[in-house]
Structure to design on (362 residues):
């Protein structure tokens, strides 16, 4: 079942994103821009070809003990045949093991009802906690006709009314990096939008108590992604130009993905329709670009990784996304295969001690 693996050559790299991001199930976390971003964080990108299909993997050496850990971020890109995808994943993991990797994690976005989890178990993989923010997704199917009225009519009455209220309040949504390349959007505009979004994310993270990457890491990825037209930012502004909400979106395959979002605390009281107006603007962009799926990302309960229940903190966000007509999709989630258990354990212990020592000395 495992295929042949080789390193990508110049011709492969020239068309890399066209084969990893643009296909129907493509993902920006298999792009060259993501590779450049992760390389700045200490990971080594491995561009490999498995049976003529590209896969981006990353490795990072352990401190002191030798060996390394590996990760295929949202890879391999799934094909229609889950057996083929499982075979490609196994082949890459075997190859990374031969290069010295002691453990390899992967989290391709494949629905659980395809039987993919059982394929992974049979190949020696075990489920692990997610590396990306969520395991499952909420998807809104979009008509190929691009009919905005039909999509808007599928929203709940509360969401439709709040969007109309936001429009009556003269809220507007500013697009950054939507049309043309990133630089064409204006470097100053991109910088300002990223600073606005990060500030709102910081405010939201404190209110909702979730972890947020550093400003440097945040800007590293989105600057690359906007320049390569893999992402854009929307900023919703009150009458007079005051930013009150912002979000980033990923372009890949047949879908647009709702990635990061934040809002001013005051906006929730004064402009309750602001975020809905922003998301409606993103859906209209997806329709304009001919995409057939709006991926609203997930709201699974961290640790439990299931649909939120009434009374849990995540339940309100679930209802918010369902109000747009999105449907919950169970995904396979992250798995890993341990190749050398002893060195893997030693590497984890040494890395953890080093991180704790770094925090104590900070």
């Amino acid at each position: 079942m495992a295929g042949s693996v080789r390193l990508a050559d110049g011709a492969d790299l020239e068309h890399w994103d066209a084969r990893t991001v643009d296909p129907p199930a493509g993902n920006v976390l298999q792009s060259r821009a993501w590779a450049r971003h992760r390389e700045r964080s200490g990971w080594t990108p491995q561009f490999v070809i498995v049976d003529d299909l590209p896969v981006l993997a990353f490795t990072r050496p352990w401190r002191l003990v030798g060996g390394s850990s590996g990760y295929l971020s949202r890879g391999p890109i799934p094909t229609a045949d889950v057996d083929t995808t499982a075979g490609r994943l196994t082949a890459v993991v075997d190859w990374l093991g031969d290069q010295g990797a002691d453990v390899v994690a992967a989290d391709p976005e494949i629905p659980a009802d395809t039987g993919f989890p059982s394929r992974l178990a049979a190949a020696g993989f075990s489920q692990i906690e997610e590396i990306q923010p969520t395991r499952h997704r909420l998807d809104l199917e979009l008509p190929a006709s691009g009919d905005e009225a039909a999509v808007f009519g599928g929203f709940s009455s509360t969401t439709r009314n709040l969007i109309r209220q936001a429009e009556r309040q003269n809220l507007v949504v500013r697009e950054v990096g939507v049309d043309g390349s990133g630089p064409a959007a204006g470097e100053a505009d991109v910088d300002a939008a990223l600073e606005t979004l990060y500030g709102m994310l910081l405010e939201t993270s404190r209110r909702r108590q979730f972890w947020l990457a550093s400003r440097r890491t945040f800007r590293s990825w989105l600057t690359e992604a906007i320049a390569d037209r893999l992402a854009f930012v929307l900023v919703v502004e009150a009458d007079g130009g005051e930013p009150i909400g912002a979000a980033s979106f990923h372009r890949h395959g047949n879908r647009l993905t709702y990635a990061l979002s934040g809002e001013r605390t005051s906006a929730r009281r004064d402009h309750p329709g602001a975020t809905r107006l922003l998301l409606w603007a993103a859906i209209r962009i997806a329709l304009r670009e001919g995409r057939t799926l709006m991926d609203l990302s997930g709201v699974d309960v961290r640790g439990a990784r299931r649909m939120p229940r009434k009374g849990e903190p995540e339940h309100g966000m679930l209802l918010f996304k369902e109000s747009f007509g999105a449907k919950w999709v169970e995904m396979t989630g992250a798995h890993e295969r341990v190749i050398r258990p002893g060195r893997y354990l030693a590497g984890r212990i040494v890395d953890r001690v080093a991180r704790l020592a770094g925090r104590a000395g900070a």
